[in-house]
Specification:
binds zinc ion, alpha/beta
Length: 279
């Protein structure tokens, strides 16, 4: 089974176009897009229109080509648009919304999760404490949640976060695979301690709960994103944790993606410059 894995496209339309060409050229069976799919700059409340116009057309190309497309929104994609995202996916038989869901194909079980460990940024739609004893980072301002009426200010984000399930608890709630050895977890947040989570400022922000989950259950493969610059900072885009291979391709100016031959367990990472699509 051939897979193309990509993450953190943040509404870059030329990268989405290249993704389709890459999938077609590889004769991919599945494309996996691990979140932060929508434009990040300007008015975030316009993201819904990107879903119902550009993303819908993007999905329809894969559906027509018979290529499965597993995806979910990420922490920079407003949660108020989850419904329009799912409805858009559900217009097509090959487009599968994977957040907190399982999808089975040819004996492989794909499980998605798009909650992230809290960060200093203000948008908190998908943020969680990692574990019960999680220590928060210094915040850039009051927390914000998206609502249909606009931003809702959180007077006390720390107290609110304590009322939510932790990442550790969210992982337990996920659907269970029948055969863990053939399971592939698509988790936007990277694990800690694997060289897949290093920010420009040198801090390593990965989830301890996700690392522990991987070590305990030992799935075949885990796919992550979120920290775009990490491969540049550590020189690593994959790691082995026990028997599990963990991949975090990163995403900077170039279009970056990974091809996976799941049966052979072979991986390659590609970076394509913007210039290349102009010639
Ligand atoms: Zn992210």
């Amino acid at each position: 089974m051939k897979i193309i894995f990509v993450t953190d496209l943040h509404g870059a339309e030329w990268k989405y176009d290249r993704l389709f060409s890459a999938a077609r050229d590889l004769k991919a069976d599945i494309v996996i897009n691990a979140g932060d799919m929508l434009p990040k700059h300007g008015d975030l409340f316009q993201q819904g229109e990107f879903i119902s116009s550009f993303l819908r057309d993007h999905f329809s190309r894969f559906d027509s080509a018979g290529i499965y497309y597993l995806s979910y929104l990420g922490n920079d994609d407003l949660m108020i648009f989850d419904k329009v995202f799912e409805e858009t996916c559900n217009q097509f038989s090959y487009i599968i919304p994977l957040a907190q869901r399982i999808f089975v194909l040819d004996g492989y079980e794909f499980i998605g999760m798009n909650w992230v460990v809290d960060y200093p940024f203000r948008l908190k739609d998908r943020c969680r404490m990692d574990t019960k004893d999680y220590v928060f980072q210094k915040q850039f301002g009051t927390g914000l949640l998206s609502t249909a009426e606009g931003w809702k200010d959180l007077d006390d984000w720390f107290a609110y976060a304590h009322s939510l399930p932790t990442i550790e608890e969210e992982l337990i709630k996920l659907p269970h695979p029948e055969n863990t050895q053939n399971s592939i977890y698509v988790i936007h947040m990277p694990p800690s301690g694997s060289g897949l989570d290093k920010c420009y400022n040198g801090s390593e922000v990965g989830s301890k709960a996700i690392y522990e989950f991987i070590m305990k259950h030992q799935p075949k493969l885990t796919l992550h994103g979120h920290i775009h610059e990490s491969p540049v900072m550590t020189g690593k885009w994959y790691a082995k944790n026990g028997k599990t291979i963990c991949i975090q391709p990163g995403q900077l100016d170039d279009f970056t993606y990974v091809t996976i031959d799941l049966d052979a367990m072979e991986f390659d990472r590609f970076r394509e410059k913007y210039r290349e699509i102009l010639t």
